[in-house]
Amino acid sequence: MSELLELPDAISRHVHDGDVVALEGFTHLIPFAAGHEIIRQGLTNLTLIRLTPDLIYDQMIGAGCASKLIFSWGGNPGVGSLHRMRDAIQDQWPRPLEIEEHSHAGMAERWRAGASGLPFGVLRGYVGTSLAEHTSTIQPITCPFTGEQLTAVPAHNPDVGIIHAQQADREGNVMLWGISGVQKECVLASKRAIVTVEEIVESFQPNVNSVVLPSWVIDAVVVVPGGAHPSYAHGYSERDNAFYTAWDAIGRDRQAFTTWLDELRAGSS
Amino acid sequence: MSDSPADYAVDYTTDEMMTIAAARALDDGVVCFVGIGLPSTATNVARRMHAPNAVLIYESGCIGAKPTRLPASIGDGVLAEHADAVIGVPEIFSYWLQAGRVDIGFLGAAQIDRFGNLNTTVIGPYDNPITRLPGAGGAPEIAANAGAIIITLRHSARAFVEKLDFVTSFGHGSGAGDRERLGLRGRGPIAVITDLGILEPDPETKELTLTSLHPGVTVDQVQAATGWQLRIAEHVRETAAPTDDELRVMRELKSA
After folding, report:
1. Which position among B16, B59, B200, B207 bears the catalytic label?
2. Cβ-contact A162, A191 below 8 angstroms
3. pTM of the complete model
4. Mode of pairing for the β-strands spanning B189-193 and B148-152
């Protein structure tokens, strides 16, 4: 059953140095507040999984939290590059970053396999590309029924999965809606799951594309209004596109980033 | 400029010409897998002009999206608000793209070669990059599994290269027959639309061939912006300039 915790307690209890960690959310509902708490607690040597590293992993990579990144598209959506991620890959700053690179389709299958309790997922993908030459977790497999050559990718089963949702109820069940990415799969595939929510409600009202995750597949629920900022929570907030644009200049420069990081670490929220 | 009737505009940018040419490439009713940026602008112009029944699919899980303004990101809430269905990312790639329900995929790239193979991953060696780019996203499986691919990018010798540093998305490989040999189901690239003109694969060899020049552009200009000896069609067409209507719809959409 999920437990209602404060954010610092949820992170210190469930996330440890060296863990494999996924903070998911496809442009929408990205759990930024939880990522910032991981930075504040100085957690390190993490393997980070996300389809789109986005600003949240750019910040965590720049803060030195990660030793490895598993991803499929590493840009600043609608703006350009993730400069902290680039700096870590190209110039090992602030520390070397190992990368394991996939496509969205492959990452989605890895999540689905993890949620399904299967050792691998299968897809028609990667064939003819250079990705398979550089990523050992992309392997050919022959269909035992038709003989067709397909591609196998191993399941994601991180130590901790973290997502942001709109609502929890008093029993600790969680509901999210709108663009839902791979968050359901992330929670079900992870050994421990933390969900930050906008608010706690008496009962859920059905909504567009509602996804309900029962209390007993979640370890911690944390109330963090605005916890997805600068991404957004459909029905609660708008995406802060100006911050995504402003991040380009902050992320581009080590000094500007360090100033941003000092301010984050000094903040108590 | 072309000797076009009065309703063809004269005041437009090369990027606007590229977007309009891409919009015209979409037939009404087509199911289209759309990325942010130029493809999104082009498909939404098409939906407001000649292709009101085009189905726009965004990889964030939005099927039949009808955005009232251009989305700022792939997961913009405006894509979900008026969509026919909003589903998870694993379903988009498996039930819809992989299963063959997408007619046209739009792709861009940092580098392209003469057979329409694309690089969006890295400039320079993979393990010691000169420039690290965002990477694959949905592109490799869109290139493999969509019915056909339309590529849009600006023409330059840095982008149109003899040899890719990395093959992120497979086009026609090293020529005719390669896609069939690898078991890829889609037809692969059918057009490359740039700010200078349109290239199409030769029906026999699959090598990209210049088939249309945008108004005012010369063959020499296109060759100078291409890093290999470009094949030129026997009869190169002139792309019709954007009409006043096309420009108005596109500009209204961009300022909405």
Report:
1. B59
2. no
3. 0.96
4. parallel
